[in-house]
Amino acid sequence: MPMSFRSLSRTAALAAAVALLGGLATAPAHAATTDQRQRDFAAAAAEFGVPLDVLLGVSYLESRWDFNGGTPSTAAGYGPMHLTDLREAGVAGSHHDQGSEDPRGDDARPALHPAAGPDVPPQAGLQTVDEAAQLLKTDPKTLRTDTTQNIRGGAALLAKYHLGQTGWYDAVARYGGSGEAAGQTFADEVFETIKSGVSRTTDDGQQVTLAATPGITAPEHAEANPANVECPRTVTCESVPAPYQELPGNDYGNHDLADRPAGQKIDHIVIHDTEGYWDSVLKLAQDPTYVSWNYTIRSADGLIAQHVPTKDVAWHAGNWYINAKSIGIEHEGFAAKGTWYTEAMYRSSAKLVGYLARKYDIPLDRAHIIGHDNVPGTIPSTIAGMHWDPGPYWDWSHYFDLLGAPLGGFGLPGSSLVTIDPDFTKNQPIFTGCDTAGTPCTPRGSEAVVLHSQPSDSSPLLVDVGLHPKGTPSTMDVADVGSRAATGQRYAVADTSGDWTAIWYLGQKGWFRNPHNARVAKPAIGLVVTPKPGLATIPVYGRAYPEPEAYPANLTPQAITPLPYTLAAGQKYSSAGVVGSEYYSATTFDVADHVVVKGKLKYVQIQFGHRIAFVKADDVRFLPAF
User: Fold this and answer.
1) Which residues of 268-288 are buried (b: 16+ CB within 10 A; e: fewer)?
2) Which residues, 6+ apart, have CB-to-CB distance to 265 below 8 Å?
3) pLDDT tens sequence across 445-491
4) Total structural domains in the chain?
5) What's the pTM?
6) Do 542 and 597 share a domain, yes or no?
7) Residue-number span of the structural domain to which 28 is assigned
8) Which of 17, 26, 461, 608 could form a disulfide with 45 if both were Cys (CB 3.0 to 4.6 A apart)?
9) Tens digits of residue pLDDT in 530-554
10) Rounded to an integer, what distance in angstroms lies between the CA atom of residue 167 and that of residue 172?
11) Does residue 493 lie in a domain region?
12) Is residue 348 a contact partner of residue 304, using CB atoms and an 8 Å limit?
């Protein structure tokens, strides 16, 4: 019969740990430099009587066994066991307090820049480092900075949480969750990881393996999700509704009622981070004078809160065309602080996005599952103020593995189209400004590939005239996306030179190292667009709005304003397909006044720079790339 997760005994744990230690002791000498973390897990499991697979599974769900350069997670957690210390990690500022973006992004209404108010102190659970320090009779700094002691601290906590229990499920749930339902989701994910097994090399070169236990089962528990949330059954969700409320001054908040997908197809899912802790952000979501998004996901355990029904339009992306055709998901985290995202949150998010993509027929690719940093400015004046979360430390490659849609590797060698796909842990560009402007960030894995104007590391970065109107080169500031290609994005090859590859990017050649023995871009298959013969340049747009003739007589047509870039003859850009022109007119509280305007004009979504963009279909021709 299947082994029960609750029935794992301390005797079995000790036996397994001792056996592993014995096996490791006879391993070749050269392996000792790469398997020390495995030894540390085994030793801590034996010392505190925690089953080794439980300890490994919990750590994997928290950190994937990484050290992350000693930096805190988005939930103030440190080290492989994610021991939390809010004092050291610091309290965040207000929700998205950087940038001048109007989250609604609709020219037909006054720009919205509400004050977020003070940050609410986060949940008390963000101080487990003190509890572990007391158990080990050591200090919190040691537990934050020493991976061996960090693992011992996590094992000591699990052993404490297990006292008086016959199995380990409840102890694991308590370790990972701030509430019963969320803790169960965390424990279920740990259990699934133990069942399937996993092996990987960590960000600091440690090889760690959790052997599969196919017959293990978790205790059954009732489904906890309320009926009014749109969530998959395998995650824990709660309803925290955003108010649709009339306000003084002929205003209203904080989202728009709609009838999607009947009225408008949902084309995108936008990944955000909160720039604030869970308690603060949920209070903002319930403020009728603030902005809105559809979901928030908690870092510590992956708990999901739904705020706006997916049929309605949230005010989240700073571009009304994207807002009207997308779902916005906030993840508890801080792009600016250089923090890292927990595996528990990645997994909950991937399950939610997979569920929504299936429900609304959204392609699982980086042209449709985008970051807030990939959303274009609407007109030239809004580009510089656009937000740039979730930032360069969001692991898109791992995220798409969890979605069951791995990136890269589908084209033929020499293809004229490539997918950006560096090794996340080895790709460590040195950005600046994570904590202090101009100060280098802690070196750590990144999804971003930095582009140069020539095939040389010493050459300037590219110019983004939208972000830098004076024509100065982009910078390595963590918020400057002007010369940065993101993992999963597809670009047309412009040139090659030795180990360097150039892609077409914002009307320029962007060069990056792409050596044969360590590719950061993989051959891709798809379509590219280029200006039709006879057109020297074509305009590029941040939204796909209809032609003036499409609007009813009582509505003022929205301007079709080009962005300040050049797409010239001979250049090619990856196509995400043809889209219709649409504008959702929703400027009053009365939904009877809301109108979806659909035009005859057709656009093509392209990967133009770090952000997506649109060109008129009549201006381009399609070419195959393979």
Assistant:
1) bbbbbbbbbbbebbbbbbebb
2) 325, 360
3) 999 999 999 999 999 999 999 999 999 999 999 999 999 999 999 99
4) 4
5) 0.92
6) yes
7) 3-85+126-217
8) 17
9) 999 999 999 999 999 999 999 999 9
10) 10
11) yes
12) yes
